[in-house]
Write a structure and sequence with these properties.
- This protein is an all-alpha fold and 347 residues long.
- The termini are close together.
């Protein structure tokens, strides 16, 4: 097993290199970079939309600005060096886990991620726990009562929730409960109130839950379907196996068969998805939900970084999230050994 783990860890290096290389190469051909946007600011224009909207006739954003000033701007952002030198320097920083400094925020990328992480953690963890706490028992109950009216009705409900986009549901929730056309039971924006620091512990908890209810509800309903159906199908597959018939023939009661035999085997595909889902919850980001409920999280940071051509944030966050994704994939594969002793990687 240790040889397998070592091989997987070594394979992460070329994977990371390939992802960063492709992204870095594409960035070199994207118009409206930080130099052009700074030039627009110097000319008294907005560099966001006009710098990005470049036609086929050639880019004209640098006209009217002194060439020496443009060279100073290039040096400020590090674009005075050839692309291959900048790429090698970036790889050296990433090897030391130095993600660089944001062009737009003038902050360390690590600091930006730490500032935005609480919002994404709140959305991700609540979504993760609620989805699994509801979907797994529901899927088991649906499997036990397969074909019943409850099974049919619950399937329609969870599939309907899956079919409705989260941002559409968020708009409906705001209209109904956020002061739209009906009642205002929940706040419109933010993770906590402006006076949250002055509240008591109990009021801090209730204020936080009050703010997070609508965005989490909008995100969580669409996630019920996949885990519920996966759990139901997995349990049904185990119930129909020969060892269950043998256990019943021996006179074991249904509770013992379900919880000591069927449940343990049926949960293998569910449990193996826990590491990726749990760790991914810390870095999940929903741009539309964060924008709709005015939550400043990683989703909004990533989107603004792409629009503003904040390359250190784009490449630094890409490196970090790709590395986390590779590690969680390895943890997911190793979890098979924990839940299913029959799996042997050395074979």
């Amino acid at each position: 097993m240790w040889a397998y783990i070592l091989k997987r860890l070594l394979l992460m290096i070329p994977t990371l290199f390939g992802v960063i290389l492709i992204t870095f190469t594409v960035i070199q051909f994207v118009p409206g970079g930080p130099v052009e946007q700074m030039v627009y600011q110097l000319r008294g224009r907005s560099g966001g939309g006009e710098a990005a909207a470049v036609g086929g006739a050639g880019y004209r954003g640098r006209q009217g600005v002194d060439a020496a000033r443009i060279e100073e701007i290039k040096k400020l952002y590090g674009f005075d060096k050839p692309a291959h030198e900048r790429f090698v320097e970036m790889l050296g920083r990433f090897a030391r886990f130095d993600l660089g400094t944001s062009f737009y925020h003038n902050k360390d990328v690590w600091q930006l991620i730490r500032e935005k992480l609480p919002v994404s953690i709140s959305l991700g963890l609540w979504t993760f726990f609620l989805v699994y706490l509801v979907s797994v028992p529901l899927g088991i109950y649906k499997a036990v009562r397969a074909g019943s009216r409850f099974d049919t009705a619950s399937t329609i409900v969870v599939l309907l929730g899956y079919a409705i986009p989260s941002f559409v549901l968020g708009v409906v929730l705001l209209v109904l409960f956020g002061g739209g056309s009906f009642v205002q039971w929940f706040p419109l924006r933010g993770l906590v109130s402006s006076d949250w620091a002055d509240l008591s512990l109990w009021h801090k908890i209730t204020d936080y839950l009050w703010h997070i209810t609508l965005p989490v509800t909008a995100m969580v309903l669409g996630g019920f379907a996949m885990i519920t159906i996966l759990t139901k199908n997995s349990v049904l597959e185990e119930i129909r196996k020969q060892y269950v018939l043998t256990a019943r023939a021996k006179g074991l009661d249904e509770g013992t068969i379900m919880w000591r035999h069927v449940f343990r085997n049926a949960m293998i595909p569910i449990m193996t998805g826990f590491p990726a889902a749990f760790i991914g919850a810390f870095f999940t980001g929903s741009l539309l939900i964060e924008t709709l409920f005015s939550l400043d999280g990683l989703g909004l940071l990533s989107y603004e970084s792409v629009i503003r051509r904040d390359y250190p944030v784009v490449l630094g966050s890409l490196f970090l999230f790709t590395l986390i994704g590779l590690i969680t994939t390895l943890l997911r594969d190793l979890s098979y050994l924990w839940v299913d002793p029959r799996v042997k990687f050395d074979r």
